[in-house]
Write a structure and sequence with these properties.
Blueprint: E1 4-8, H1 12-24, E2 28-32, H2 35-43, E3 52-56, H3 64-74, E4 79-84, H4 89-97, E5 102-105, H5 110-126, H6 130-141, H7 151-164, E6 170-173, H8 180-189, E7 198-202, H9 211-216, H10 227-230, E8 235-239, H11 246-258, E9 260-261, E10 270-271, E11 275-280, H12 284-289, H13 295-301, E12 304-307, H14 318-332, E13 339-340, H15 342-350, H16 356-370, E14 375-376, H17 396-411, H18 416-422, H19 427-436
Parallel strand pairs: 1-2, 1-3, 3-4, 4-5, 6-11, 6-12, 7-8, 8-11, 13-14
Antiparallel strand pairs: 9-10
Helix pairs in contact: 2-3, 6-8, 7-8, 11-13, 14-16, 17-18, 18-19
Length: 441
């Protein structure tokens, strides 16, 4: 079963936008308009505990900053993303300090929303504690490991263990979806900083004018401490450093060299004791040649460089990963799977996975939702060549959609409205597509 997301916002337009975007990814969504309704939900032990809360800071009857501690206290395993309007960045920083996972500034686009949601939910799944990650790494290194079989990944895990003990800054390189943030978490939790904060700055989500305040803080640290302060003696993760403005790169270079951060407007700086870890999904040469990274900054922050190989270069990991995802999402959906047929295994291994592990994970999650039997066959996979349909004019995507609609109708006992709801499709659209695809009930 997909994760449950609770949206708390007094704007019906925003709730509709968020619900539509999340529903397209099969998330279960609940909505609340007021803080009073949220407090009632918190006090009702019979209510389902959400996996993630999207919380507006400014509600008609409540202040999100006052609600946040109640959420964290009542639902300690639930992640919270703060939704903030222009001019409330200071409050967003306070919320991060109070335990929120991240924040989105209005207006935001669907891509930013989904990226932040997926990061927060993955953070929750990983249960990032020192002991939890030690168990993960122990599992990865075992010979029967369900995730790491390739020599490339075993070598990376060994490098991560050695780098974890060092105070030097680290850059983690790799294509999107390879697991750079997981590697960053391992670096933090396997080293001496494990008991200290791990603070993540998702650079692409920040507007240019926000970087200085969010990273270095304001003149009053009690109001706006900044990520460098919040990280304490822990780790500050700079996600996608290629989006850092050049002037901010210069100021971070000064922090790396002097160990002092100077907030704008402050009369004095403060010592920085955290370790900097950065990620990039772009080749270094591209970033340097395009002027998106200053050479002096990059060479200072990349004293240790780790590279996560793409999935197509470690095909030995594909089937163990797919099997692990199949079991995870099968349990969540209360479905029992034996595994993949030989044809399905061939399709999985032969596919190049341009979106890497994240794409594989999404593919298996979709397959669990659609598959009918206990064995996943090649026809159940959207990446596999599909058998010819009864209509030769249909393309591959149409064949896949036609099959999904037929399966939804079967599961709904022929009820078109219910089948459309299961696929998060409008009833009128569903009927039109039934006619176009020559689907008969």
């Amino acid at each position: 079963m997909k994760e449950h997301i609770l949206v708390v916002d007094d704007s019906i337009e925003l709730r509709m936008l968020v619900r539509s975007a999340l529903a397209r990814q099969q998330y279960r969504v609940s909505e609340l308009e007021e803080g009073a309704a949220l407090r009632q939900w918190l006090s009702d032990q019979g209510k389902e505990v959400p996996d993630l809360v999207l919380l507006d800071l400014v509600l008609g009857d409540s202040n999100g900053l006052e609600l946040l501690p109640e959420i964290r206290r009542t639902w300690p395993q639930t992640e919270v993303i703060i939704v903030t309007g222009y001019g409330t960045v200071d409050n967003a920083v306070k919320a991060l300090k109070a335990g929120a996972y991240g924040f989105l500034q209005k207006p935001f686009d669907v891509n930013s929303l989904m990226q932040e949601v997926e990061h927060a939910l993955e953070h929750r799944r990983l249960s990032v504690t020192a002991e939890g990650l030690r168990q993960v790494v122990s599992t990865l290194r075992a010979e029967e490991a369900p995730v790491v079989q390739s020599e490339a990944m075993k070598r990376l895990v060994r490098l991560v263990e050695r780098a974890a003990a060092s105070p030097l800054p680290v850059v983690i390189l790799g294509e999107s979806g390879t697991g750079k943030e997981v590697v960053a978490g391992m670096l933090h939790h396997l080293g001496p900083r494990a008991g200290q904060p791990l603070v993540r700055c998702h650079c692409p989500a920040l507007a240019k004018e926000q970087f200085e305040t969010m990273l270095f803080g304001g003149s009053d640290p009690a109001q706006v401490p900044g990520y460098l302060r919040l990280a304490g003696e822990g780790t500050l993760l700079l996600d996608e450093i290629g989006t850092l403005p050049a002037e901010i790169q210069g100021r971070l270079l000064g922090v790396l060299e002097d160990g002092i951060a100077q907030p704008s407007g402050a009369t004095a700086g403060y010592p920085v004791k955290c370790r900097l870890v950065a990620t990039s999904n772009q080749p270094v040469k591209t970033l340097l040649a395009g002027g998106r990274l200053r050479e002096d900054f990059f060479y200072r922050i990349s004293q240790i460089t780790l590279e996560v190989p793409p999935l197509r270069e470690r095909r030995e990991d594909i089937l163990p990963l797919a099997q692990a995802f199949l079991q995870r999402y099968g349990r969540q959906s209360e479905k029992m799977f034996e595994g993949f047929t030989e044809r399905a295994q061939q399709a999985l291994v032969q596919f190049d996975w341009p979106g890497n592990v994240r794409q594989l994970q999404n593919e298996i999650q979709r397959t669990v939702l659609m598959a009918q039997g206990t064995w996943v066959d090649a026809e159940d996979l959207s990446i596999a060549p599909q058998p010819a349909s009864s209509d030769p004019e249909l393309g591959l995507l149409e064949v896949i959609e036609r099959k999904a609609m037929i399966q939804a109708l079967q599961a709904a006992g022929g009820d078109m409205a219910e089948a459309a709801r299961r696929l998060h499709m409008g009833r009128h659209t569903f009927q039109l597509k039934m006619k176009a695809y020559r689907i008969e009930t």
